[in-house]
């Protein structure tokens, strides 16, 4: 009950002391110093959980001494049953997001019952433990890469996907992204990600390992508390947007898979995480990366470099002066990422000077933006053969939507190099589709 009085509103030390005095029926002299220590302990942090406040009280020496000294005199004079309210931190108070202050209000906002809300959120992780897929909220597809890495695609089923879309459109899209972020954002693209690095003397490219699954459910729930949502509401919002892959799923992996990689993947995906395939995951990932984007932008500015990020691809570039210290700069980047809870995929890290091809996310950025020549030539040959021999003869990888696949490949070239893209588009339009 004392923890509840500490959590209510956005209190000052005096306000906390007054509420605690109402609880005990007397303004004890040790309450205000206790409130000051509480505010100092949680200053600048995400809105604490109730259990964190209880833990603080149990380990506060002044409180334990006061409790021991006045144990016989302390009693509850007035129960404080005031509901929790929206408590955004100062940096988020201007965001135009809906105020939802109870579990019932969240269920009403999403158009479901409280029971359905708790089922979709699955905060207790029952979906991880139950066998079978009839009651599961996701469709799964395991991708085993040539390098041995295992990636899990988690596509939400229609009802859960509808809830996630509502959270995306009415909450997450109202939150401004960092200027360095270019992935999954309106009016930004892979082209705007690479453009700032054109013509630079040195380009550093690095990659985040296991980007989506490394963002834990606890981190997402803390993010919703930062927005101001009460703990119970934030936990359910976080539960709807995260997932823990069920145990039986990994029995379907091919026997040839690397056992060590399989063990790592199972451990990673068994914990609540952002699922790659949910509509909310890209926006939540960008928001979670805001702090790291700020730190890396500041580091880059300090040395005269430029920084951009497209999802898990990070790019830095600069002049010859930056090039002279690029190795040390790369170490600082990796240290910041590690401090923020990310891992660098060191095998994909590249330092590219002007004498070699500088490419970022499949785009060449030496003198002007361009597609990789070999990729362009292969696509042109495929389109030419589709015109001559028919598209069925060229779908060697078995794409279910081969026409859409080729259309997307041509569209990518058009985005990066309109002249080359126009030539490919003319070939594409000559294909006779059955």
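Sequence proposed for the structure above (434 residues):
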């Amino acid at each position: 009950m004392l923890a509840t009085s500490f959590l209510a509103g956005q209190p000052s030390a005096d306000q906390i002391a007054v509420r605690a005095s109402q609880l005990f029926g007397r303004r004890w002299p040790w309450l205000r110093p206790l409130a000051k220590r509480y505010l100092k302990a949680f200053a600048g942090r995400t809105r604490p959980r109730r259990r964190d406040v209880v833990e603080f009280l149990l380990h506060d020496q002044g409180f334990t001494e006061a409790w021991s000294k006045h144990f016989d005199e302390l009693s509850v004079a007035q129960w404080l049953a005031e509901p929790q309210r929206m408590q955004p931190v100062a940096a988020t108070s201007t965001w135009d997001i809906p105020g939802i202050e109870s579990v019932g209000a969240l269920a009403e906002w999403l158009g479901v019952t409280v029971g359905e809300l708790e089922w979709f959120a699955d905060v207790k992780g029952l979906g991880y433990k139950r066998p079978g897929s009839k009651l599961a909220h996701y469709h799964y597809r395991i991708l085993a890469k040539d390098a041995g890495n295992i990636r899990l695609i988690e596509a939400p089923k229609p009802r859960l996907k509808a809830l996630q879309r509502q959270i995306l459109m009415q909450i997450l899209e109202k939150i401004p992204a960092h200027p360095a972020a270019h992935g999954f954002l309106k009016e930004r693209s892979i082209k705007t990600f690479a453009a700032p690095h054109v013509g630079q003397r040195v380009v550093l490219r690095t990659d985040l390992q296991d980007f989506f699954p490394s963002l834990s459910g606890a981190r997402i729930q803390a993010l919703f508390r930062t927005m101001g949502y009460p703990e119970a509401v934030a936990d359910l919002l976080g539960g709807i947007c995260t997932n823990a892959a069920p145990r039986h799923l990994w029995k379907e992996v091919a026997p040839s898979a690397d056992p060590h990689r399989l063990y790592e993947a199972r451990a990673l995906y068994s914990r609540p995480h952002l699922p790659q395939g949910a509509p909310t995951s890209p926006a939540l990932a960008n928001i979670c990366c805001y702090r790291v984007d700020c730190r890396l932008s500041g580091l880059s500015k300090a040395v005269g470099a430029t920084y951009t990020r497209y999802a898990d691809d990070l790019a830095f570039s600069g002049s010859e002066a930056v090039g002279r210290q690029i190795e040390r700069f790369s170490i600082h980047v990796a240290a910041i990422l590690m401090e923020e809870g990310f891992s660098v995929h060191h095998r994909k890290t590249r330092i590219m000077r002007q004498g070699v091809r500088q490419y970022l996310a499949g785009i060449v950025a030496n003198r002007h933006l361009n597609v990789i020549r070999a990729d362009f030539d292969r696509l042109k040959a495929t389109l030419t053969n589709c015109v001559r021999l028919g598209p069925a003869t060229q779908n060697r990888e078995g794409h279910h939507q081969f026409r859409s696949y080729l259309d997307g490949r041509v569209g990518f070239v058009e985005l990066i190099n309109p002249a080359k893209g126009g030539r490919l588009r003319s070939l594409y339009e000559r294909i006779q589709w059955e």
